[in-house]
Specification:
The complex is a heterodimer of chains A (110) and B (459). Chain A has 5 helices and no strands. Chain A has 110 residues and is an all-alpha fold. Chain A has one domain. Chain B has 3 domains: 79 residues; 188 residues, no CATH class; 183 residues, 3-Layer(aba) Sandwich (Rossmann fold), CATH 3.40.50. In chain B, helix 1 packs parallel to helix 9, helix 5 runs antiparallel to helix 8 and helix 6 packs antiparallel against helix 7. The chains are: A mainly alpha (110), B alpha/beta (459). At the A-B interface, helix 1, helix 2, helix 3, helix 4 and helix 5 of A face helix 1, helix 2, helix 3, helix 4 and helix 8 of B.
Chain lengths: 110, 459
């Protein structure tokens, strides 16, 4: 890696770490489970590395197969992670909803 | 650089910004959901950018992987019950880490001769963190799901064995770093990391899972960030670092909430020396009948519910919400007290209660609610144990001494819903159960709560 690129990468890492600390320490304990699920989905961005491995020019078949597995697991994280996070966040509400919804969730409880 | 490469890099920049914005919007439940839409948009842009800009020649594996992954992911997103959220999260840590590790192996197979010393170092970290997080998270998920026993698995010389594995793995890493052509050493490192992950998590008891989950979250993120260094890809570095730091912050919070250090959680083997350390809380536990308990609740002014992991195992979140609503209709002020490590992952109880339609304005954090217990008529403990153990505060010899607790014993009376007379997960005796203000209501939490609700209606 040429030194300029390396230094730039280290800058990116350090700034992301700092920013991450600032942003994430403001997330209330109430939302810690969705937070974990969301950051998980976001780190499913390793999918883009997997895509390259699975199909880019110059990679042999074994690499494609490893790439296939990696694409699969990363996609599970992206789709599953965002899906579940949304399902959780939908449930957080300030005041109990009007009767129809309450009745619905009562039915679901049984 | 060609035009498509510029386009790809632009999508990565957009994705990075959207990811950060989405986490910022996580700071409030009102904006969190919109924030996630932004993150989804960022992810979509980055994927499209990669497919257009990365010189893809073989589409078969990509399409197959995207299809299979989407089906499994969507199926999980729709079907996993909220009570199983810790297992699901552990599993996704495993998947994310595995993807990072596999990308690392692929890089080794194809590009190892072009990697300079810095990238080789990053590759080593990616492989080790990725592999150990994969197996570690799988073990954690199996423990949480009850496939393997939740109790710590310990044997003589465990720390010595673990240290040897860790040393061997590090040795392989150093050798590989100097001699990148040594593929046997590289794969030995991979294998040892897989084994190390298992060894790291089996000695940890279920009650410590919130810390372990957070740590594994952190490792999975850092593995992705290391991938970013190897591939020279900034969006991977940013997203991985955000994930890594989020996990790290949560680990620190969880450890604080248990008054323990991360080393102690990882290598302490909690629950080994129980017998001597338990306080000699003697006396009898006073049992209470359903009707008496219902009477107490119905005529109280202030009631605080304290949920623990038992609420999740009994799936009693809807039952407690119904009881709380009935009490509120009678004019009782009802609050919920949430200990940071209640349950098996950070925020576990909040999600369960939100699922049951309890408004989050009724959920209180430990620091907020503790001063209120002394003016509370009835505190109802539902399947929580260590987080309400007054020994942590009063008995300096206790194993959990110094752990901040919910001070339910300051309430005028305490009703403890418990499956049986046994001890909690940590195996500690809980003097709260023997106090004169405490009465016990045995049985499955869900049926106890719905019976209580019925009884309250008839008061």
């Amino acid at each position: 890696m040429n030194p300029a690129v390396l230094i730039a990468s280290v800058y990116v890492f350090a700034l992301a770490a700092f920013l991450g600390y600032q942003v994430i320490s403001r997330v209330p304990p109430l939302l810690h489970t969705p937070l974990m699920s969301a950051t998980n989905a976001i780190s499913g961005i390793s999918l883009i590395g997997s895509l390259v491995l699975a199909g880019a020019k110059g990679y042999p078949l074994p690499a494609h197969i490893l790439g296939f597995v990696a694409v699969t697991t990363a996609t599970v994280n992206v789709v599953g992670g965002f899906g579940i996070t949304d399902r959780m966040l939908k449930m957080f509400r300030k005041k109990p909803d009007a009767k129809p919804v309450a009745a619905e969730s009562k039915a679901a409880a049984k | 650089m060609t035009l498509t490469t510029y386009f790809m890099e632009a999508t990565y920049l957009v994705a990075s910004i959207l990811f950060i914005l989405s986490l910022k919007m996580m700071s409030h439940p009102d904006t969190a959901r919109r924030g996630m839409f932004l993150a989804e948009g960022g992810m979509f842009a980055a994927i499209v950018g990669t497919l257009i800009g990365a010189h893809i020649v073989t589409w078969t594996w990509i399409i197959a992987g995207l299809a299979v992954g989407s089906i499994i992911g969507a199926w999980m997103a729709v079907t996993v019950p909220m009570t199983a959220m810790p297992q699901r999260t552990a599993l996704s840590h495993a998947f994310g880490a595995l993807a990072a590790a596999l990308v690392g192996v692929g890089e080794f197979m194809v590009n190892i001769n072009e990697l300079g010393p810095v990238k080789r170092g990053a590759l080593g970290f990616e492989i080790m963190l990725g592999a150990l997080t994969t197996t570690g998270s799988l073990i954690a998920a199996a423990k949480l799901q009850g496939i393997i026993q939740g109790k710590p698995v310990q044997f003589r010389g465990q720390n010595f064995v673990n240290a040897s594995i860790c040393l061997g793995m590090t040795g392989c890493f150093v050798y590989f770093w100097i001699h990148p052509e040594a593929s046997t050493v590289f794969y030995t490192m991979l294998g040892l990391a897989f084994v190390f992950g298992v060894m790291l998590v089996i000695p940890i008891g279920s009650a410590d899972m919130p810390v372990v989950m957070s740590l594994l979250n952190s490792y999975a993120g850092l593995a992705a960030a290391a991938t970013g260094f190897v591939l020279g890809n900034n969006v991977l570095i940013i997203a991985g670092t955000l994930d890594g730091f989020s996990g790290f912050i949560l680990s620190v919070l969880m450890c604080k909430a248990m008054n323990r250090s991360i080393t102690n959680v990882l290598f302490g083997g909690f629950g080994a020396a129980i017998a001597e350390a338990s306080s000699d809380a003697g006396g009898v536990m006073r049992e209470i009948s359903l009707d008496d308990a219902a009477m107490q609740l119905a005529f109280a002014n202030r009631v605080i519910f304290v949920p623990g992991y038992g609420l999740a195992t009994a799936q009693a979140q809807h039952a407690v919400r119904e009881l709380a609503e009935l009490l509120e209709e009678r004019g009782v002020a009802v609050k919920f007290a949430i200990h940071p490590v209640a349950g098996r992952m950070p925020g576990h109880m909040n999600v369960l209660l939100a699922e049951a339609n309890v408004p989050y304005s009724a959920l209180y954090e430990m620091e907020q609610i503790n001063p209120e217990f002394s003016s509370t008529d009835v505190a109802v403990v539902i399947g929580a144990n260590d987080v309400v153990n007054p020994d942590a505060r009063d008995n300096p010899k206790s194993l959990i001494a110094g752990m901040p607790i919910l001070e339910v014993d300051r309430a005028k009376s305490v009703i403890v819903l418990k499956r049986g007379q046994g001890r909690g997960f940590s195996g500690l005796e809980n003097p709260l159960f023997f106090k004169s203000c405490t009465s016990m209501l045995y049985g499955d939490a869900k049926s106890s709560l719905s019976h209580l609700a019925q009884a309250v209606q008839h008061v």
